[in-house]
User: Fold Polysaccharide deacetylase family protein from Deinococcus sonorensis KR-87.
Amino acid sequence: MGRGRRACLLLTLMLLGMWPGSRAAPHIHLDPGRTEPPTLPGQLQPLAPGTLTAPRLPTLTLTPPLPGVVKVEYLSNGHIEVAGAILTLGAPERPEVRARVLALATRVLAARPSLSEVDLSVYDRSSYGGFGGPLPLLTASVPRARLNDFLAWTQGRGAYDRVWLNPVSLPAPPRQLSEPVRELSVNFLGSLADRAADAVHHTTAKVLGGVQGGLLYHGLPLTRLAALTFDDAPHPIFEPLLLDLLQRSGIHATFFVIGRNARAYPYFVQDMISQGHEVGNHTYHHVRLPPLSAAQAALEMQQASLVIRSITGQPVRYFRPPGGDYTPATLRAASQQGLTTVFWTDDPGDFQNPGEAVLQRRYLRHLGRGGIVLLHDNAPEMLQVLPAFLQLARQRRVVLGTVGQLVGEPPAPYPAGSPR
Assistant:
């Protein structure tokens, strides 16, 4: 073997973690016999292995109780307080849905005067399976200041832009079970040759920075910018609180949204865009793509982009694979749809509920220029620690912004006639 070829082989083996003394890169091993855990009623999303139990949100008890109310929770970000209420209805009760949601919104806001908003989700009682189950029949965001507008809509006296009625007559994408995975490490799955090529590409992209071959691992060298990204959005209760914190700080972020979540809560996605944030693709169902066929994986991306574009009026530019799992087919499908695949450099693991002190230490350790910070929109501890993290970035002179800002792309034009 020639000296040049031998050196190339040694480099490839080291990058793959196969050379003695080298550090092996983490890879996910697919288990075809793995079964999905049951979806628990009311849970916010599936739990990944190793995740600690999140602190329970405080609940509100309505006296006297309203029939069909599963629970009412509330949370504060230190500035505003938002409640989330879940109502289930049987088939005979569906014609009463507008009167029921009005009564629920009115009672919740009256029961807790400190609330700025209540988010409502109405499900079919016979098929209700929590947040990850079948989509709601109706959702609505009711700020206290707009209760009269909501009242007028329930009585058929006007439109209301913060409500979604499930168009059950329209076909939904083939259902995939949302998977209990979280983005801890970037995991390439493929043959030895594919892995060797990806390792070289990965290293080159990290050294050069910016978008390389449709992939983004790190910002350009010497930049003061870092991208702030949130996965799995949008969620009721959490989205208004997070958007409020970002708006108070004057910081814009990129939200990688799950298509089914965006479909059920379109007004939160509109809020993201109107407040200057960027919306990316995180598949329609939040599923690991490598086990799917190439056609199924492409459909997951395509359906999510269709939902996002129908809400925002803007093309979707960026994609993040759930769990960080990808293959050559995943990258080809993203590229064919005009999507840049975005990974991350900094993941403090907010979804694991490690405790606020641990989360704060991880923020301190990982934040850097040119980085891509990965957070989750519905992690309660993240909401509590985020203001201190934003202050830390200012102290380190790191400018937080969107993925588009990190790579120097102009912002997408806001569609004419849309509310700001």
